[in-house]
């Protein structure tokens, strides 16, 4: 990684992306400052009793970036490298993502600096319940609604819902999304983000005169997003030639069967030892000679050092912020079509919105209805972004950001500034 990249945080990337879009919108500096500044940030240090009886301290965060368009929405991440600046950046990206999809939410994000795989189930449950109690002053169906992110899952969301509900004295399923279906979760939530990546990639290819069955694909990250993306693209005829996870990757130029690969992962815990392909590192996967590259792991994986070696013609950002600012510029100059994260991976927050609405109404939809409405919202907003890009002569990221920010500005003007 280049030395300049070591100094650039996710928050600096998020602000730089905002500043570029704000320049296109000619926003006054005072409005820019208002929109850049997170509304509130909570840092909590809390104890957890470990299985051996010792007390261990953990640090957690919850950031509300904006409440202009409604209650805040955003995931909770369990990862050793979670920091306030990372959470702050992810919260800002959620604001633009929700606005881009025309959802009545502002952006939030949360996290705990922890390796969830190093904890027992009991330790993880106690950590989750204590963290929930610590940030509960911010939570509520009309205030802030968390969801799963890296290192968390429906089980953890169920513990959050239960903890909050016990404190309230009654069940509050709408306080969190991504829950098990048995306690108010939605059909189609687990598949939503990966399906959205496929929808936007397929539409982008179509606009460029390419069909899905003609392309080769490499996917970094075979978690919830990457695995569903792989299976969805495979169904559409794409050839998935490489996938990876935190332990390493597997490459087969003749194609991988993601369904068989998923069964292997369920048995072994990783794609790295999959026998029907050759080992490949995460970094080498990003420079494979493929048509479509899907970075679906963490932010900042493609930097200015790696970008000149990327051979893909299309990049679908399954993760949030996988490209640094410098890498983005290099790839744009190379003619790479980049489907930006706030458009590409918005499927998860759309179905989270559906889950929230269903919980508030105690009226639940079929999976067919969920998928139909997901596809409608994603492609409706994709069309607007594509038209802006063509009419203004800008890239898809700039088009998406200017549309999202203009929608937040419109809401700000309608509400005004108190007092």
The gist of it:
This protein is α/β, with parallel strands linked by helices and 419 residues long.
Largest pleated sheet: 7 strands, mixed
Rg over CA atoms, rounded to whole Å, is: 21 Å
Please give the order of strands in the largest beta sheet.
9-8-7-6-10-11-12
Low-confidence stretches: 1-5
Number of strands: 12
Q: Please give the domain count.
A: 2
Strand content: 15-25%
**Strand pairing plus helix content: what structural class?**
alpha/beta
Order of helices and strands: HHHEEEHEHEHHEHEEHEHEEHEHHHH
Q: CATH top level of the largest domain?
A: Alpha Beta
Note down, in words, how this protein is organized:
This protein is an alpha/beta fold and 419 residues long. The chain has 2 domains: 39-179, 3-Layer(aba) Sandwich (Rossmann fold); 190-344, 3-Layer(aba) Sandwich (Rossmann fold). The chain is 47% helix and 17% strand. The chain contains 15 helices and 12 strands. It has helices at 3-6, 10-25, 29-36, 84-100, 121-135, 154-168, 189-207, 224-235, 258-268, 282-285, 325-333, 341-344, 347-361, 367-392, 396-415; strands spanning 40-49, 55-64, 72-79, 106-113, 144-148, 216-220, 239-245, 248-251, 278-280, 292-295, 314-316, 337-339. A 7-stranded mixed β-sheet has the order 9-8-7-6-10-11-12, with helices on both faces. Strands 1-2-4-3-5 form a 5-stranded mixed β-sheet, with helices on both faces. A hairpin with a 5-residue loop joins strand 1 (40-49) and strand 2. The radius of gyration is 21 Å and the shape is globular. The relative contact order is 0.13. Residues 1-5 have low confidence and may be disordered.
